[in-house]
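Researcher: I'd like a structural prediction for the single chain below. Treat it as a standalone chain; there are no partners to consider.
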Amino acid sequence: MSTAVATDRERRDLKILALISVGHFMSHFFSLTLPPLFIYLREAFNVSYAELGLLMALSYGASAVVQVPVGFLVDRFGAKLVLTVGLTLLSLGYGLVGLAPTFWVAIALAMLAGIGNSVFHPADYVILNSSISPSRMGRAFSIHTFAGHLGTAVAPVSMILLSDLFGWRTALIAAGLFGLAVMLALLTQWNSIREDVAPKPKKKDQAAAALPAAVPDGLALLFSKPIVLFFLFFATLSMTSSGINAFAVTALVTLHGTPLAIASMALTVYLFCSATGILIGGEISDRTQRHDVVAAIVFVMTAVFSLLLAWFDLPLAILVALMAIMGLGQGITRPARDMMLRATAPKGSVGKVFGFVSAGIMVGSTLAPIPFGYLLDVGRPDWVFYLIAIFMVISLFTVLTPKEIAEKGVQEAKA
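Model: Treating it as a single chain, here is the predicted structure.
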């Protein structure tokens, strides 16, 4: 009997994970539907590439601005409702760009899509946290993250192929219809999903009694030291990834005269190993409670390897090996990162907490190109790798400090 129950639970977990991962796939897929079509959009709307960059910046900006409020909505009204509305807005926004008569209409629709895209991190993590067995949570987080990476990889090829066959407008409309079809399919399965909705006491004194005195709530929770440090943690990880993904190739070519083909190959190996590391990290996260130690080891290793890249013109085999290990490590930290935040977020506040710290990813991605680009402009490509090492040291501090603060808070509460 116990075996049958365990099998049923495993099947339910897999079903829920598949549903939420498909949604995360769509989120990342839509994030890269427009950039591959810029050459067509530029001609159709008679705009510059800078203006197209503004369109994407406004879309991402809209998502960043509303992500924290969306987290509150998830905790208040439930993740399923918010996720349904978000995927609908995302699909309609980018799909209708295919019908946009002017560039300004396209901007408005892209911003609408950005608002829709803001729901996935807070809503997805609430559902996973509430519905998946704790013993499988690390693997669930890793597969969810991997699905997003897969959506990013599939989007450019799909959009270019569709635009070549049917035109860019039809390609966008088809993508939008596909998103709506996925949303309708998810609706038929919502009864399988549980939500961690905050309790709704009838009286204020009951609400106060429902929460431990030492646990902050609302904005006080988001601006508590552990959560702010997690925000910084997510931001520095994002800045590290942006620095490596966008500037490592140029830095290697400029600093050491590494052939462009070799530098690009090293980055490709890094990205492939990073995706693989996400899945490995899920297995590790389910086998240990010391996620902070796992992350700390990776951060120290990445910092050291970054210094080696700055100091030495490495042979091809060693260069590729270092980039492979760095990528593997960065991937492994993703599930560990999510597990640490899950352990910190109070029950009923997972949505707002994940929404808040996920905004740190967008902040990091937005800010990172500025210092990295400046260092290349002033002829200091070595400092690209020094800066990556610095971000890793900051990440090391942010990942270890929240645990110390939490333990201190528990001791003070008991005193």
